[in-house]
């Protein structure tokens, strides 16, 4: 019974995780590791995306994708993003509160 409770608790925690909220674009799940759940990175090496201008974020992602802006990690993540996905990501992070 104790194991069943722990399993149920773990599953409910996983699905209640704000990193995977319904309003988050599917592609944003790969951004969470570096930029934080809501775009407020806790690591100085990774910029905070929350509250940035959507047009700036959109341009930055397109520049990474198209090779105009260089960063091996970002190029890897951005290379398969469509213009629509980039726009969704930019709008999502722009709508988050900067902390």
From TrEMBL:
Keywords: Electron transport, Heme, Iron, Metal-binding, Signal, Transport
This protein's name: Cytochrome c-554(548)
Presence of keyword Isomerase: no
InterPro entries, per the entry: Cyt_c-like_dom (IPR009056), Cyt_c-like_dom_sf (IPR036909), Cyt_C_IC (IPR008168), Cytochrome_c_Oxidase_Subunit (IPR050597)
Pfam families: Cytochrom_C (PF00034)
Signal sequence region: 1-21
Native source organism of the sequence: Hydrogenovibrio crunogenus
Domain Cytochrome c: 1-97
One annotated GO molecular function: electron transfer activity
Cited PANTHER family: CBB3-TYPE CYTOCHROME C OXIDASE SUBUNIT FIXP, CYTOCHROME C4
């Amino acid at each position: 019974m104790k194991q069943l409770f722990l399993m149920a608790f773990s599953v409910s925690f996983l699905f209640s995780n704000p990193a995977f909220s319904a309003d988050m674009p599917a592609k944003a799940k790969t951004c969470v590791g570096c930029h934080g759940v809501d775009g407020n990175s806790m690591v100085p090496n990774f910029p905070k995306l929350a509250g940035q201008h959507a047009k700036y974020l959109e341009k930055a992602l397109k520049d990474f994708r198209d090779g105009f802006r260089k960063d091996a990690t970002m190029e890897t993540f951005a290379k398969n993003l469509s213009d629509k996905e980039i726009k969704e990501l930019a709008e999502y992070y722009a709508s988050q509160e900067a902390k």
